[in-house]
Amino acid sequence: MKHFLFKSSYIIASLLFITSCDGPPTDEKLLTTLQEDVVFLAADDLGGRAIGTEGEQKAAEYLAKEFEKLGLQPKGTEGFFQSFTVSKPSNPHEEAVIGTDGEGITGRNVVAFLDKKADKTIVIGAHFDHLGMGGQGSLHRGDSAIHNGADDNASGTAALLALAEILKYEELKNNILFIAFSGEENGLWGSNYFVKNPTIDLKTVNYMINMDMVGRLNEEKSLAINGVGTSPSFVPVFDQINTDSLKLVTSESGVGPSDHTSFYLQDLPVLHFFTGQHEDYHKPSDDSDKINYEGLVKVVRYISRVVTALDNEPKLAFTKTKDSSDSPRFTVSMGVVPDYMFDGKGMRVDGVSEGKPAQAAGLQKGDVVVQLGDSTVYDMMSYMRALSAFQKGDSTKVVIERGGQKVEAVVRF
Question: Which of 5, 76, 322, 384 could form a disulfide with 82 if both were Cys (CB 3.0 to 4.6 A apart)?
Answer without folding.
Answer: 76
